[in-house]
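User: For a benchmark we're assembling, each entry needs the component sequences followed by a predicted structure for the full assembly. Here are entry 17's components. Please fill in the structure.
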Amino acid sequence: MTQSGSTQPVRDNQTATGGSPPPPVHVAIIMDGNGRWATSRGLPRVAGHRAGVEAVRRAVRTAGELGLQWLTLYAFSSENWRRPLSEIIDLTGLLRHFLRMEIADLHSKGVRLHFIGDRTKFDPGIQSDIAQAEKTTNNNAGLNLVIALSYGGRAEIVAAARKTAEDIIAGRLPIEALDETNFAERLSTAEIPDPDLIIRTSGEKRLSNFLLWQGAYAELLFVDTLWPDFGPSEFTAALAEFARRDRRFGARPG
Ligand code: IPE
Ligand code: IPE
Ligand code: MG
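Assistant: Structure for entry 17:
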């Protein structure tokens, strides 16, 4: 049975009668604003991406301290391949460094890593580092850290539709049985609960192809802070804002 909440918009422990919602189980972050952070300091954009990696370290630590079970970080979108080659080289270089240097530390802290997105777009070295990170941390019981790499929500939905069609044609899934639950089981997030809260930094107010299916009932929070400046106090403030939201999931207001 999948943990995906896609067919259960009303959580068992969610009341529709007002009051604070239960704390978020899963927070997802669109980490935006590295380039502007660097440019505003007269630095090259890569300096912003480096500072962004520092912010990732802080966010993972804070997520653990705040008791989150799942943290998803949007690190590279399927559209980010449109950036200049020099920036792609900088970003993939930082990714390679992160995978080589940070996994042991995350593993020692009990973090379990998951990756979503089209990893085949990266070079074989990065693909094998990703596989190794998943394998090494597979039995950890601490924070689940999902890193979205070359991720696009529309492509993910199309891939799930293709798998569904194949299963129907092969007789593994009767067409009458197709529903939101078994469709969601064919998404890359099959084992991941839907995000309760999606935060986007840098003041942009859009989803940029992030968790389009899974975010159907997420609370959205757009903050002006640029990603490299996002620290424990911003994260804590985001959860405080979440606690003030009234999650109704379509039910009658309390
Ligand atoms: C987010 O920062 C990092 C990635 C998208 C990889 P940006 O690089 O988008 O920074 P801005 O939006 O140009 O400031
Ligand atoms: C979204 O940021 C993707 C990530 C943060 C990884 P972008 O900076 O790529 O988004 P747009 O282009 O402003 O929509
Ligand atoms: Mg951006």
